[in-house]
Design a protein that fits this description.
67 residues; mainly alpha
């Protein structure tokens, strides 16, 4: 469930950033491209952040045993 929510919000944020950036650069807005970039960043953040935080904070969670 956490991965789905992360991908959803990353896609929403990238759509907003893409819309604003296209307006500032006077280029055409491409929602498909913004959505794909959002999904890719969402997946990266969903898999990388737990590993980084598990390394800095040791507890009995399954993420602490990852590294």
């Amino acid at each position: 469930m956490r991965y789905i929510v992360t991908i959803f919000w990353a896609t929403i944020y990238c759509e907003i950033i893409g819309f604003i950036a296209s307006a500032l650069t006077s280029m055409q807005f491409d929602p498909i491209q913004s959505g794909v970039i959002g999904v890719v960043f969402g997946l990266l953040f969903a898999f990388i952040i737990p590993g980084i935080t598990a390394k800095s904070h040791k507890d009995s969670s399954k993420f602490s045993k990852m590294l």
